[in-house]
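Re: weekly structure request thread

Next one in the queue (189 aa):
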Amino acid sequence: MKNYKTFLYIGESMKPLFKTGDLVLLKDCNKPKVGDVIVFLKQDSKEKIIHRVIKISKNSIITKGDNNSLKDKETINIKDVIGKVLYIKRDNKLIRIKRQLSIKKYIFKILSLIYHFLERFNIFNFIFLKLKIKYFIYYKGNKKELRLFLKDILIARVDLENKRFLYVKPPYRLVIPKNYIFNFLNEVK
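Done, posted below.
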């Protein structure tokens, strides 16, 4: 612990990983990476802030508290970075802080692969046919629009002239196969 800079953490923005009263141990860091937890000086007040790096450009960093829903408004100049948090000490236990990449990216990639795999075998056509979808054609002036309903919930709107979806309610976009809808439209004409 001799080679580390230390200070006491106070705040809510990094919960549940950090708790008020944790002793933060950090090392100098001149090249932070996305996912690192860093300590930096807030530009207007010079207050020390601990947040996670979510984006890096040439000379600036965008951060976000793990417990915050939005990214920080201010970008951080790399020269304002005090260090990278490596450990916190809580109740005489040393907890290592690992770099964390956005789990959303990994989940999206996996789900996307699964979705495209299932789409190849027309699984969604089968699911879609099992749903009791009602459809109506609406006329707006000289434009025709197909509207799909599941019970009384509007789940999709289709521009019939341009053959494109105007709206698909999540999560129904997973089970409304575009090719099926457009083949259906060709048969109806």
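The first strand starts at residue 5 and ends at 8. The first helix runs from residue 103 to 120.
Next request, please.
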